[in-house]
């Protein structure tokens, strides 16, 4: 089937239904009305507006979202701005019948779900470029920039790209994903003129990739120099000092490039169907059989905002991985999962145990501390000390070889880099290499089952 036929069929998957449009428009209008009423007459608030994909009409089916921005005068102190947006946001979500949740990015905002629409109530300062006070100050200019350049056809092309990225599990700039934001998706379409053109270009990308829509810089080399060490550089049209793609990890970028190569070679609707894996405990047990998976399971109680929790989880996962490698284990892969109460860090190891004996490398014989090494190990070693060239070696027996026991000991002795907010939780965590040792309630959680299935299979949906 030709690529255009595939894209025509894909559009029927990504375009919002008439019913969804009606629900989103009514819910967003109600949110704007209530926030405006709550903000009316308050000193320092100069405007309330709808931003994001709802304002730009680039949202896709089954992902209804609306961002309501409260604009503050630059004279308002940051603390006062944050206090007011939380107060107004909490009250607005409650009035609409939702359950407000306090969230954090650069500063706090409020999120709630009403009629299956995710409403974010966010603060920004009303300033002119480039006099930004907070990161959200750019958002109204992003909305205006995209709306002025988007045609109806290009909006559909953005929808195709967003769905493609979702299927690649590379959509979303939040810490959990570290992928492509909605605004970045829109800029890629504006830069290339369509979805197919974007994918064909991406299939040939080699980092560093540079896109400068407004030609803020005189040459590609200038851009690379300005954003050193970044693999994908998309200069923000409204702020030449900002890389819109800064949040995209090298892994997510590589996944997009690989998926683009595969689509260019053989277009398929698979790239627009982000289907969740069908799984069961039986399937998970079959996938895990004869493999060495280490689980670290603990609870946080739901008091940490999602973005903060994911940042802490990623840092802790990295610290655990480094500790295991230092102990002598080879870590193939690792990943984290949370439902905001329960947390699980999963790591696949080459082996769940180390060899009974360890080769220890000492100093050269001519070094002053060579005798210290010899005296330390002459009675403790199984074999040696001996010399190989100038270097001293000894074979010693390990007291403990099991990964879970060694890791717990390292954590208790403070030798593992753990995120501050999770430190006490991880010290009390359940550490096991057996799926059966995880709590039954967790094993029955469909979301955790899907996560673990993806971790064990570790293959994109479109393959």
Helical segment count? 17
End-to-end distance: 17 Å
Number of separate domains = 4
By CATH reckoning, the class of the largest domain would read: Alpha Beta
The CATH superfamily of the largest domain is identified as Poly(A) polymerase predicted RNA binding domain
Give start-end ranges of low-pLDDT stretches. none
* Average pLDDT reading: 94
Radius of gyration: 26 Å
How many strands, which pairing sense, and closed or not: the largest β-sheet? 5 strands, mixed
Report the helical percentage: 40-55%
Descriptive notes:
The protein is an alpha+beta fold and 463 residues long. It has 4 domains: 121 residues, Beta Polymerase, domain 2 (2-Layer Sandwich); 123 residues, CCA tRNA nucleotidyltransferase, domain 2 (Poly(a)-polymerase, middle domain); 130 residues, 2-Layer Sandwich (Alpha-Beta Plaits), CATH 3.30.70; 41 residues, no CATH class. 42% of the residues lie in helices and 21% in strands. The strands form 4 sheets. It has a 5-stranded mixed β-sheet, with helices on both faces. A 4-stranded antiparallel β-sheet has the order 10-11-9-15, with helices on both faces. A hairpin with a 2-residue loop joins strand 4 and strand 5. The chain starts with a helix and ends in a 6-residue tail after the last helix.
């Amino acid at each position: 089937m030709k690529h255009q036929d595939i894209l025509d069929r894909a559009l029927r998957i990504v375009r919002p239904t008439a019913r969804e449009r009606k629900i989103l428009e009514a819910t967003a209008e109600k949110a704007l009305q209530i926030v405006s009423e709550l903000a009316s007459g308050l000193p320092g608030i100069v405007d309330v507006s709808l931003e994001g994909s709802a304002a730009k009409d680039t949202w896709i089916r089954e992902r209804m979202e609306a961002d309501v921005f409260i604009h503050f005068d630059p004279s308002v102190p940051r603390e006062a701005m944050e206090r007011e947006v939380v107060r107004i946001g909490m009250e607005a979500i409650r009035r609409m019948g939702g359950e407000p949740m306090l969230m954090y990015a650069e500063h706090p905002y409020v999120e709630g779900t009403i009629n299956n629409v995710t409403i974010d109530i966010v603060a920004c300062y009303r300033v002119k470029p480039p006099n930004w006070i907070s990161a959200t100050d750019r958002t109204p200019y992003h909305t205006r920039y995209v709306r002025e350049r988007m045609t109806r056809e290009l909006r559909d092309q953005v929808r195709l790209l967003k769905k493609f990225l979702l299927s690649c599990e590379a959509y979303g700039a939040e810490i959990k994903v570290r992928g492509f934001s909605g605004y970045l998706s829109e800029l890629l379409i504006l830069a290339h003129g369509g979805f197919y053109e974007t994918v064909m270009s991406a299939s040939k990308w080699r980092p560093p990739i540079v896109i400068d829509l407004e030609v803020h810089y005189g040459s590609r080399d200038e851009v690379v120099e300005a954003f050193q060490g970044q693999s994908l550089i998309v200069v923000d049209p409204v702020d030449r000092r900002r890389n819109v793609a800064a949040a995209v990890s090298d892994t997510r970028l590589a996944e997009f490039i690989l998926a683009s190569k595969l689509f260019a070679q053989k277009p398929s609707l698979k790239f627009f169907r982000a289907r969740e894996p069908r799984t069961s405990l039986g399937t998970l047990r079959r996938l895990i059989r004869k493999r060495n998976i280490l689980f670290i399971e603990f609870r946080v109680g739901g008091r940490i905002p999602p973005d903060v929790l994911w940042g802490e989880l990623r840092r802790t996962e990295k610290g655990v991985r480094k500790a295991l490698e230092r102990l002598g284990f080879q870590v193939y892969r690792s990943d984290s999962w949370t439902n905001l109460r329960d947390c699980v860090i999963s790591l696949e190891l080459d082996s769940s145990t180390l060899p009974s004996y360890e080769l220890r490398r000492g100093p050269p014989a001519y070094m002053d501390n060579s005798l210290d090494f010899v005296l330390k190990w002459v009675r403790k070693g199984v074999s040696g000390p001996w010399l190989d060239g100038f270097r001293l070696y000894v074979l010693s027996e390990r007291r403990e070889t099991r990964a879970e026991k060694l890791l717990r000991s390292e954590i208790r002795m403070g030798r593992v880099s753990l995120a501050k907010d999770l430190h006490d939780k991880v010290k009390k965590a359940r550490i096991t290499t057996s799926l059966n040792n995880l709590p039954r309630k967790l094993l029955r959680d469909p979301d955790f089952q899907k996560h673990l299935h993806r971790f064990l299979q570790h293959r994109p949906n479109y393959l």
